[in-house]
């Protein structure tokens, strides 16, 4: 595919995502208990998070290669906050109680820092490596917390832990004597995303749009402060500015989907399905950026993706 053809295809994908998001917001405005079963509603919302997070991670990683990571994250959080507040006000949604807001803000801080680390990891290493590593950790840590509180999860999840560790080892196994760039940042991002999942679950049954808005406001506060304090504005390019704002809107849409998924079903179900988003990122990186993976890294990525539903199995 020529460079021009790739650019046209890329723009078509972005345009299609915008249209799909419009339909997703219509879906989010419907009370799932009135139309479909809670299990199906939770799975549907989680799959919506898969699509939106996968695309936003690709856009964010693509832009971060020539854009300052914390500045990019701050822009995304700003656009996401504006979008969610606009939707919540337009729909006249009730404002959540203070206890819900505290957990939403905590989730926003954890997710905001994690997203900046993740964008930086994507910019330093291959998207197909950083994305699955972060996803395995973000799914595994909430499962470990569940084991400590609820007991032994079963043999399949434990087998998933072993498979995940194998996948992480194969993905991080260097082709030469050096450590793969972006790996430790991806690990830090995975831990932050795990805390985000846990804190979002604790927000209770508040409105998904307001919870997402508060979380993004906290994310913007932390990443914006870091950006201003360190004067982290370069590298920068105008096209990246607009793509970063778009990525933020898409990413916060995934947050709203995950809030609904965790509210209408079990946390493990929401986490397992939502954590499949790296498959979208890897697919887009392969199609648009023609990223090449060695055989062992391909096996590691596959093992990591397979381990996600095994780890989160109830």
How does the SSE layout of this entry go?
Blueprint: H1 3-28, H2 38-64, H3 69-90, H4 98-124, H5 127-150, H6 155-172, H7 183-201, H8 208-230, H9 238-264, H10 267-274, H11 278-288, H12 295-311
In a few lines, what is going on in this structure?
The protein has twelve helices and no strands. It has 314 residues and is mostly helical.
How is this structure best described in words?
The chain is mostly helical. The protein has one domain. 79% of the residues lie in helices and 0% in strands. Helix 2 packs parallel to helix 10, helix 3 packs across helix 9 and helix 5 packs parallel to helix 12. The longest helix is centred in the N-terminal third of the chain and has 27 residues. The chain is globular, with a radius of gyration of 18 Å. The N terminus is likely disordered.
Query: How many beta-strand runs?
Result: 0
The helix content is: over 70%
Tally of individual domains: 1
Return the structural class.
mainly alpha
Strand content: under 5%
Order of helices and strands: HHHHHHHHHHHH
Alpha-carbon distance between the two ends? 44 Å
Counting H and I runs of at least 4 residues, what is the number of helices? 12
Mean pLDDT: 77
Tell me the radius of gyration: 18 Å
Note poorly predicted spans.
1-5
What is the approximate shape?
globular
Give a quick account of the main beta sheet: strands, pairing sense, barrel closure: none
């Amino acid at each position: 595919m020529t460079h021009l053809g790739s650019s046209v295809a890329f723009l078509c994908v972005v345009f299609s995502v915008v249209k799909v998001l419009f339909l997703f917001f219509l879906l989010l405005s419907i009370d799932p208990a009135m139309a479909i079963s809670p299990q199906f509603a939770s799975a549907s919302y989680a799959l919506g998070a898969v699509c939106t997070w996968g695309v936003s991670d690709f856009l964010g990683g693509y832009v971060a290669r020539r854009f300052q990571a914390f500045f990019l994250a701050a822009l995304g959080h700003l656009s996401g906050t504006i979008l969610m507040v606009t939707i919540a006000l337009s729909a006249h949604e009730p404002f959540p109680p203070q206890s819900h807001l505290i957990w939403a803000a905590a989730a926003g801080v954890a997710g905001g820092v994690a997203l900046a680390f993740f964008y930086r990891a994507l910019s330093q290493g291959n998207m197909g490596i950083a994305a699955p590593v972060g996803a395995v950790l973000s799914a595994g840590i909430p499962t470990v917390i569940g084991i400590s509180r609820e007991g032994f999860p079963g043999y399949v999840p434990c087998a998933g832990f072993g498979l995940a560790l194998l996948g992480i080892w194969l993905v991080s196994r260097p082709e030469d004597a050096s450590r793969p760039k972006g790996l430790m940042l991806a690990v830090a991002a995975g831990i932050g995303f795990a805390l985000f999942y846990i804190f979002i679950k604790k927000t209770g049954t508040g409105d998904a749009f307001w919870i997402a808005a508060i979380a993004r406001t906290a994310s913007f506060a932390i990443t914006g402060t870091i950006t201003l304090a360190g004067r982290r504005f370069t590298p920068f390019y105008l096209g990246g500015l607009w793509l970063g704002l778009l990525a933020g809107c898409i990413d916060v849409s995934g947050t709203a989907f995950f809030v609904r998924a965790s509210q209408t079903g079990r946390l493990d179900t929401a986490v397992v399905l939502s954590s499949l988003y790296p498959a979208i990122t890897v697919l887009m990186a392969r199609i648009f950026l023609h990223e090449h993976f060695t055989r062992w890294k391909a096996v590691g990525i596959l093992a990591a993706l397979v381990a996600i539903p095994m780890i989160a199995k109830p």
